[in-house]
């Protein structure tokens, strides 16, 4: 296993930011780490990258503990924090040379790695410019190059597209996709479209706890709960639905607007149409909620303590 996060817990004063967090990522896998604001995503990413110590638990990178062997583990991890820290007065190539030196890369080996990440991150035309003169999109590219310069096996990206305009966002996503072909990549974000476009596996965290962990395809499988929305011109009555065998749960959204969670969607659809005919209702719509990552996310993170 390329990355193992084991029973992570972290307190900030009396607040428990992480509560027994566990997840794994296999070699070559792109894992989406999702959660609402304040769920503990950035705290988990900082610990996984070795930038913050947990109060409990451990993180293993290729079997090496970031707690017990931080120097050895750091060589295998590349990290782009949410707030990308860069020296704005340094030139791009100068900055990457400085970072390479921190990992004891010198001479031809350092030059070769710097050339490689400059090309991979599309920084050829910017390498002799000051970082402070670059757009946010190009600064993110520099941050990615920094995370890659020592050729790590695991890359941790925390909100890498935050604050980018649509064109910059597309460019960074393409860059992430190209990086993910050879690396294990952990992508922390709250943008569902990014995860659906880039990730094979998903971990969802809420209030410091993991509430889902599976392959994206499994989370969105047809075996998951099906929801129908029924809208009629007339007022609907809950008792009309009480004997429906295909119905699991009913929620009133309006006088003529019901949400129906199906125990058996084919049976429920038939029963609804029979009801419409029997009561001579004017049917405005009967639609099935599309099972996408956003609906799953809302379902799992909408509960409050």
Automatic annotation (TrEMBL):
Domain ABC transporter: start-end pairs: 3-232
Say if the entry is tagged with keyword ATP-binding.
yes
Q: Which range is the signal sequence, renumbered to this chain?
A: none
- Cite the GO molecular-function annotations of the record: ATP binding; ATP hydrolysis activity
Q: Which domain of life is it from?
A: Bacteria
A Pfam family that the UniProt record links to this protein:
ABC_tran
Q: Which InterPro entries does the protein's record reference?
A: AAA+_ATPase, ABC_transporter-like_ATP-bd, Motility-assoc_ABC_GldA, P-loop_NTPase
Task: Identify the keywords attached in UniProt to this record, alphabetized.
Answer: ATP-binding, Nucleotide-binding, Transport
Q: Give the record's family classification.
A: Belongs to the ABC transporter superfamily.
Which protein is depicted? Gliding motility-associated ABC transporter ATP-binding subunit GldA
């Amino acid at each position: 296993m390329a990355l193992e996060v084991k029973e992570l817990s972290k307190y900030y004063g009396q607040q428990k930011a992480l509560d027994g967090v566990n997840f794994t990522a296999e070699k070559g896998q792109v894992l989406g780490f999702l959660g609402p604001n304040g769920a503990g995503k950035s705290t988990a990413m900082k610990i996984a990258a070795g930038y913050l110590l947990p109060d409990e638990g451990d993180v293993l990178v290729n079997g090496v503990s970031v707690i017990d062997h931080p120097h050895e583990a750091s060589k295998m991890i590349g990290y782009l924090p949410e707030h990308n820290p860069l020296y704005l007065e340094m030139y791009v190539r100068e900055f990457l040379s400085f970072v390479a030196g921190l990992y004891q890369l010198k001479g031809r080996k350092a030059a070769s790695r710097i050339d490689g990440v400059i090309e991979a991150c599309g920084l050829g035309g910017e390498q002799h410019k000051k970082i402070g003169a670059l757009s946010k999109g190009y600064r993110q590219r520099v941050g990615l190059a920094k995370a890659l310069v020592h050729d790590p096996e695991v890359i941790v990206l925390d909100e890498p597209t935050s604050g980018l305009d649509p064109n910059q966002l597309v460019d960074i996503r393409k860059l992430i996709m190209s990086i993910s072909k050879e690396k294990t990549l952990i992508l922390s974000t709250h943008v569902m479209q990014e995860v659906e476009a880039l990730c094979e596996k998903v971990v969802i965290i809420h209030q410091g706890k993991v509430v889902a962990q599976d392959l994206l395809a499994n989370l969105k499988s047809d075996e998951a709960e099906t929801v129908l929305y029924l809208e009629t011109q007339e007022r609907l009555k809950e008792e009309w639905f009480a004997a429906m065998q295909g119905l699991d749960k009913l929620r009133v959204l309006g006088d003529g607007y019901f949400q129906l969670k199906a125990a058996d969607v084919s049976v429920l659809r038939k029963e609804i149409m029979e009801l419409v005919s029997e009561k001579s209702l004017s049917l405005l719509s009967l639609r099935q909620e599309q099972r996408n990552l956003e609906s799953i996310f809302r379902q799992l993170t909408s509960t409050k303590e």
